[in-house]
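#struct-help
A.M.: can someone run this one for me? Single chain, 293 residues.
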Amino acid sequence: MLSTEEKERYTRHFLLDGWDEEAQEKIKNTTVFVAGAGGTGSPTITMLALIGVGCIRICDFDIFMESNKNRQFIHCLGEERVGMNKAESAALTVHSINPNVKVEYFDEKFTRYNIDDMVGDAEIIFDCVDRFKYKFVLADCARRKNIPMLFYGIMDYAYFGYIFDPTKTACFHCLFDEKKVAVVDKLSVNRGDVAVMAPTLFSAAGIMVNEAVKILIGYDKPAYNTFYIGFGKCHDLQNSRGLKSFKYWNTAYFNAEAKKAGFDFRTINKTSMFQTIHIERNPLCPYCQDGKI
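D.P.: on it. Structure tokens below:
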């Protein structure tokens, strides 16, 4: 049941079509897992707290640094937090934003061996980590638990996202090639500074938290099987470090489906502000066929 204070807090939610007190109670009774409390994790965790998610589990082993201040505002509230673990810092901010939200945090790395325990009974996984190595770990956990994983992030001025749901969509392996992880780690090409600003991160997070609410309370149909890309910079794309890095991971199937939709990762150099690519499960994906994880 919602308290009197909560009913007042969420009054503007109840003015939305399909979002009444019963829907708010569903959100209150929901547990989610957020992997990463940095660039995309910062606005994601903030929005989840604002809408009243009952329990947020946060995992991040990294510490907050001065160079994070241009975007990771969740760590810029209250006392100086440079040097503090990001998961712990995010938990402190959530308590300030909405005391009705329970927070559990993990200040250690997740691996294929501990991720299932960390996620626990969460109903949704939010992928807010940078390295693809860890994204595969999250995606496989989501498949084992049969829950959705929301995948989103940025590439320079652009942002992207896709809902991976084991029962309704392509799997992570349909779109991305895990074999390239070892190659990238060996060459260390995925390390170093990443070009990023707050607006692209907030845009990506806002879209996907909105999709998460659709999944939770059903006021509309989630954008299943839809890969979206938003562009803050629409010209000279092939010279974008972000696009070059991102398309490296794509499977041949992903590239072929994108090309059918009129978006060729290999050649496109000019685009509109927003693109969507309809992409369903790869009928030849061994992971989908065999349940291999």
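A.M.: thanks! The longest strand covers residues 149-155.
D.P.: also worth noting: The mean pLDDT is 93.
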